[in-house]
Amino acid sequence: MIKKAIVAAGVAGFILIHLTAPPEGLTQEAWRAIAVFLLALSLWSTTALPLAVTSLLTLALLPICGVLPSSKAFALFGNRSVFFILGAFILAAAMMKTGLSRRLALFLLHRFDRSPNILLLGIMLSAAFLSCWMPEHAVAAMMFPLVLEIAHSLDLKPLKTAYGKSLFLSMAWGAIIGGVATFLGGARNPLAVGMLQETYGQTIGFFEWMKAVVPVVVVMLGVGHVLLRVFFPLDVKDVSGARRELGQALADTGAMSATEKKVGLVMLLTISAWIFISRSVGLAEIGILAAVLLFVIKAVTWKDVEGYVNWGVILMYGGAIALGEALAETQAAAWFAQVVVAQIHLSPLAVVALISALTLLLTEAISNAAAVAIMLPLGFGLGETLHINPALMVFMVAVPSGLAFVLPIGTPPNAIAFSSGYYRVEDVIKPGIIMVIISWLLFNLAVRYYWPLIGLTLWVKL
């Protein structure tokens, strides 16, 4: 009922705006851009239509409503970030198809199976490390059966043991935290960088992103592990059963195949290129060349790729980038930001804190990609009014949009972990909320004290 009301409000707002004159200081194009945004907001937030379908609708409405010409609206779908995402998906598909990702997960887990506490830490760190190089939902899906085997080997009963709950939450939280560390853990990060590039002509390099986020991620992993230990005290003393299961599973994988070695080499070369030469060559170009190379060396077939690549995500991001550009080019976002600033009189630091907090709240209820599509244009508008560095605003929206620690609907790793049946939603509400608050504090402390040291300043004259 609530979802229907939200959609009805979005449709009503869309129609009403088209029937009324724009407010003073706003052009007709900007007014109609806001109409499209309100409609997309209602559909993205309720998933009344699939996210990708809403984005396709947005692409069609922008020229129909006279916001952008057709040639520009549809050209924005070809943003280089969309192709970076495609290349990253193909690389992840190759790792999963060949079994390289599972081998790596088993190798990492087997190094942390000496005690219950170390095993929990190992699951979190393994999920986090893998999510730096693969989509976090793929990591959670891949690790889920491994963690389930560990739970069965220890004879843990669903809902009965604290250790069983913490096993699956360690997997989910590790994937979530690691997923914000690079561009590969979640496509929302390249989406945000793509919107930055289309709006301001600026970009953020692969290494620059890691330099800004990885130190904060390391602290978050430590905090997450401590929180799970506090809320779910160890009630298992011996993990020898899990050690045997992991050892046997690792032995069953056998020696690395030639194809696994090829894929591993391509991944190493690609990551090195992203870190060292992406500024001159381009992230998307490197990703696409790497994907083509996988076909050249016959590591994957097109059929393999079709099964692993989330084409809906790619469609969704094309529409989101186009809508963000429309709000920026027509000055709709800037007008809205000026109205807000005039009402509440916030300082730049307070605006950054508010945007990151709203994003954290929003991402618990809707797709993190949709959260970026909704919040970043507003953030850019507020940033222009207060002369806030738009690159910093990208971090303060994209990173919090991936940090949903509470509800299963917030992010795929949560949903996958919850499907195990080992914990209830109420079990994770208190630790999850505390983790969200600490994450918000960490990133706002980074804005104030750490990021200026690496050249990421708050203020800039636009």
Describe this structure in words.
This protein is mostly helical and 462 residues long. 75% of the residues lie in helices and 0% in strands. It is built from 22 helices and no strands. Helix 10 runs antiparallel to helix 20.
Summarize this structure as a short list of keywords or feature phrases.
462 residues
Please write the string of helix (H) and strand (E) elements: HHHHHHHHHHHHHHHHHHHHHH
Q: What is the strand content?
A: under 5%
What is the mean predicted local confidence, pLDDT? 86
Decide which structural class fits the backbone. mainly alpha
Q: Uncertain spans, ≥5 residues at pLDDT below 50?
A: none
User: What's the count of strands?
Assistant: 0
Biggest sheet: strands, sense, closure? Answer: none
- Helical segment tally? 22
Shape assignment: globular
| Count of the separate structural domains | 1
Q: Bin the helical content.
A: over 70%
- What quaternary form is this? single chain
Cα Rg? 22 Å
